[in-house]
Amino acid sequence: MRIQFELTDEKAKELEAFMSTIGVTTKKDLFENSLSLLEWAVKEIQSNPNRVIGSIDEENESYKELQMAIFSNARSNARAKNVKS
User: What superkingdom does the record give (predicted)?
Assistant: First the structure.
């Protein structure tokens, strides 16, 4: 399968800089890693709709939730599935 994206020149430069920052050399690797992280996050929510995806600051014992519409959709779908079961 071939996937093609159109980006502005500015966004393409940002993407290249980001890839360099994380040590990814191909857009395929970036896509595969990004998709793996997204799949993991959605599976966590599906396994328990009360789970929160976020970042933990262990030193200050705090966390910051990552809020994305797709997580809300996954949570709603998981809760609806639990109600039907």
Answer: Bacteria
CB-CB contact of 32 with 38 (8 Å): no
Burial (CB count within 10 angstroms: exposed 0-12, middle 13-18, buried 19+), residue 74: buried
3-state class (DSSP) for residue 1:
coil
Is position 48 within any domain? Answer: yes
Structural domain contains residue 52: yes
Chain segment 10-61, per-residue pLDDT in tens: 999 999 999 999 999 999 999 999 999 999 999 999 999 999 999 999 999 9
Residue range of the domain that includes 18: 9-83
CB count in 10 Å sphere of residue 24: 16
Domains of the chain: total? 1
